[in-house]
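Hi C.,

You asked whether I'd gotten around to modeling the 251-residue construct. I have! Everything is below, sequence then structure, no commentary in between.
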Amino acid sequence: MEDLFGGAAPYYATHRHHHGADAIAHLGAALGPERRVLDLGCGPGTVAIPLSAYVREVIAVDPDEEMLAEGRRRSPANVRWIRSDSSRVRELPAFDDAVMGRSFHWMDRTAVLNDFDALIPSDGAVCLVGPCRDPATPSWEPVTATVRAQFGLQWRPTAQSFEGSGLHHDEVIGRSAFSEVETTLFDWVLVRDVDDVVGLQLSYSYSAPARLGDRVAAFTAALRAALLEDCPDGMWEEHITTEVLIARRPR
């Protein structure tokens, strides 16, 4: 399993925004209190931990042990943490429904949905929780993108992702056995300071500490200076739209 997020776990847990309490409550109500839910590509538990308040158990799966350690550190009792990945779904404990946050774009989406069709019971659902189809670009992004380019850091899409295939998640799911799709949007605003924006960059796969190596201090210093030059008060508002997609087999 490739180490995509080496050293990023504490930054991910601290600086990646959650999905909003209303979005998680909506998802939990749609699934129900007796369900055992797989969170595939769970990271440090951004979905798994809040969702656990609404369901019987969450099976939280991720290939990155650092991410799992962050999750276990904050975990309620009804979350089970397992190191594995999307290519080994059929080896996991039984589950009723599956949810994925920002992880789906890393996967062979069609293969994973075929596995879910073989494993999820007839009343089960496949759910996505994350940015909407056309998310707003954060106001700091032109600055952070410039600094990332100076350090030779760039996003590398997988062949199965939207960027690699041209197919959005909802289109891929719509072609699967889980073609009855319902989406709900939740809008909210998050205020970030300069430490938060800098830490956020270290949470991404393309600018994680492992990718930067001994340049972490130089990168964060350059980033902080550029951000404060652009916005001297060091405060930004992030306008977020969380999309909850719930897909079931046609009745």
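If it helps when you're writing up: The mean pLDDT is 92.

Thanks,
B.
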